[in-house]
Amino acid sequence: MPYLCTKAGRQRWRQTVLPRLAALLLLGFFAPAGGHSQTADTEKAVPILSGTAGFLTSVTAGQTLLDTQVNPVLLLPFGDRWLVESRGEFEGRFQRAPGGGPFGGPVNKHLDYLQVDYIANPHVTITTGRFLTPFGIFNERLYPMWIRALQPDPLILPIATAASDGTMLRGGFPVSRRANLNYAAYVSVASIGVNGVESERHVGGRLGVFFPGPRLEVGASWQKVLQDDRKNGLGFHLAWQPSAVPLSVHSEFVRSNQGSGYWMEGAYRLSHLYFWQKAMRRTELVARGQQFFSGNIRSDAAQQLGLPAANTSETDFGINYFLKDGLKAVGSYGRQLSSAGNFNQWTVGIAYRFLTPLGREGTP
Amino acid sequence: MKPVPILLLVLLAALAAFAGSSSKKEALETPVVHATDADSMRALGEQRFRANCGRCHAAPQKFPPRATATVLRHMRVRATITDEDMRLVLLYMTQ
Question: Quick check: B77 and A28 CB within 8 A?
Answer without folding.
Answer: no
